[in-house]
Amino acid sequence: MGLPSHIDTFSESNPDPATPAARGRRTTIATLFRRAEVEPNKVFGSFPLTDNIEDGFRDFTFAELAKAVDACAWNLKETFGTSEQFEAILYMGSNDYRYIIFFYAAIKCGFQALFINPRYPIEGVMAVIEKMKCFKAFYSLEERAVIENIQSHRPGFEASELAPLSNWLDANPRPFPFNKTWEESRNDPVLSVHSSGTTGLPKPITFRNGYFATCDVLWPIPPGKRSIHPVAGIEGCQLAFSIFPQAHAGGLIMNNIRPMYSNCATVMLPARADYTRSAAMVLEILKRRSVDTISATPLLLENICQLPGGVEALRKLHSVLYAGGPLRHDIAETIAANGIFTLNIYGATETGFIPALKVDPEDYEYFHFNPYYKTVFEPVGDEVGSHELVIRKDSGPEEEELHSKRGICWSFGVDEHRTKDLFVPHPTKPDLWKYYGRTDDILVLAHAGKINPIPLEDIISTHPGVSGTFVTGEYRFPPSILIEPASKVADHKLFMEEVWPTIEKANAKLRKEMRIPKEMVAVLEERGLARGIKGQIVRKTNVQKHADVIDKLYAEREKLVK
């Protein structure tokens, strides 16, 4: 069956989505169906057929994706009808391309898709659902138990199972009508995801169509500089490997928006793979597919580099993109020493990515944000000179246009956004900034002293026997450390003695009276630290989860002092 154009005519205010003239003024859904017309056989994505990589992959095209969306839209309409008010409808499934299919099907039916990480505690899931006033859902078979749990907490919540991915990609439905232009739909709220919940219950964050168009903007580049653009700035790349989960904003951009707005298709992990601990599987895929670039979390890159052949596999790529936090210092040094072209992407769910410029190899820890974006750094008044990154719209028509190219304009819709992300300036080079944690990471100790735990944790985590580190002690003294070993530890005391010299290196960064004594260190079981979907350590959750361990450290300390 053919794919007739969703929009019959194009104009200056409604340019053809398949042309460069439309950059920054085209919705993703219009781009999908237009590209399905003009280049139907262009590959959009790829995925392993089974959990066994040796069983091969399935590639699918723009035309197949467009037909899958139409088939899903008809199914959605038959099940729940359509919406005139962008009613939220949840999709919760295994980590595959059904998220993308459902996203566009929901748009066609007038709904606003809602994605929630199924691994979140039910309290967090319900907080988002209730805030979004959501009573309808589709789900994959793997997440039926989570949906049933939601229904037990929310009377009247309706849910329907979504067919397997292959069913949709093999579909050949009649076209589902949809003809909204850019001007008509740029302010439509089309998707809600949620915050990480690192400081409390997760909160919904809603994106309008214009948010995704900001990923399509090519910012001016100062003379002599090179841009870092995770969507359009990967010239020559035909296939990208992304490990970011579909329910996360990073996954949405890397797995959906990037192939939509570029010529780079995306290959993913098997749907049921643990994307935070899949380094061996990633290497296997890199061996079997002609991958040009990889998008990953720092944790996964660290694990890849520690495997035999891992660094060599990364050296063969055009580029390595990572987001979600800084790399461990020793891993970053290894990557830099091997000449691997890395792109450290900064962004957040509500802001999208913030455009940056390539830095010299020795400055790999630093960001050089594109000056045309006009980021603002405001000092917070601590002893190391850290600054909070602020996005602010000034007055004037030019500022209005500039702000419309920022993601925050289309999510929170505010004129000023304080990111809570801290940076420190390069000691000698202007305009270079190193990530230094968050304002809500800062520990205020019992004697009112303040420490940033992130640099300490990064140093301790360089020990090969350590998988993760958590420095705590809010309103207590002295600070304490929970250590997650990389493998099962038979003798905790012996392990502590092995790690202590590395802890001393971290202590050297603190004033003497702020340092962490040996009796304030506890060794957890393997995988003991709670982590978010990007692999980051979730501070508040770990304080709650390990309250007994932390309390015991301070109780024993009091006995020693007395």
TrEMBL record:
Residues covered by region (Disordered): 1-22
InterPro entries: Adenylate-forming_Reductase (IPR051414), AMP-dep_synth/lig_dom (IPR000873), ANL_N_sf (IPR042099)
Keywords of the record: Phosphopantetheine, Phosphoprotein
Keyword Phosphoprotein applies: yes
Top-level taxon: Eukaryota
A Pfam family this chain is assigned to: AMP-binding
Positions of the AMP-dependent synthetase/ligase domain: 34-357
Chain segments annotated as transmembrane: none
Name of the protein in question: AMP-dependent synthetase/ligase domain-containing protein
